[in-house]
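Course assignment 3, question 2. Fill in each field.
Student: A.L.
Task: Predict the tertiary structure for the chain below.
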Amino acid sequence: MEVIASRPSTLHWRAYAAEFIGTALLVFLGLAVVIYDFGHGSPAAVLLPDPFVRRLATGFLFGSVGALLALSPIGRISGAHLDPVLSWAFWAAGSLSPLDAACYTIAQFAGAALAGLALKPVWGAFGRTVLYGATVPSAAGPWLAVVGEVLASFALVGGILWFVGHGRLRAFTPALMPPLVAFLVALEAPWSGTSMNPARSLGPALPAHTLGVLWVYLLGPAIGAGLAAVAVARSDRIHVAKLAHHAHDPLGRFHGAAAGSPAARLRRRAALVLGRPGARR
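Answer field:
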């Protein structure tokens, strides 16, 4: 594919608008699934009485919303990151400019905030029984929740980077999302609620008044995504910063070799510290 590289200082307003709309849809529709499945008195509890199975189904549907958005025109325009830590992981992998990553982050948080504020009038008292889908730490405390978010975010972002970094797997990236998110939600939700996305946590935190624990869902996913970028981004691969429509990149915004990326530089420094100066990664 032949692309024309855009300047790193160029603003891409259509892409930022797409991230705003896409994140708002992800938060609103994804949390609609969470509220319906776990709200007090929900028919879902009768159909799926086992909480593990219900979390599995909820995660699958949440991941499916993200996959459909990636396949939609939103994904064609912006790549459908819909998650600030994923955008910064793509920057760390060398396939997104820091300006775009910053503007994506602003758009994602703004979209999530709008969706979160819409949850209360739509779901009312029923939504309030589960704090409108807000993520809160378990009784074990916030630091266990941070650990859970690190592990889950590492798996999610690492899986995405692995798929988009391999030409044969790249087209299947949207198909990865539903089963992977289902697995992570089913296993990790009792610790932290399985956010993996600071914007997803911000949205319901506004009507639920749980902003005091938002730091958990900033710190954990940021660490997990950063570790995933360092572990997965390789100098001999191009990690396309899109979850679908990978060939559509007329400005060359989403393709970048990882050789000179922040993640690759950190890997080389770690290799030197560990006494392996000749290490390729």
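Instructor remarks: The chain has one domain: 13-273. The radius of gyration is 19 Å.
Grade: pending
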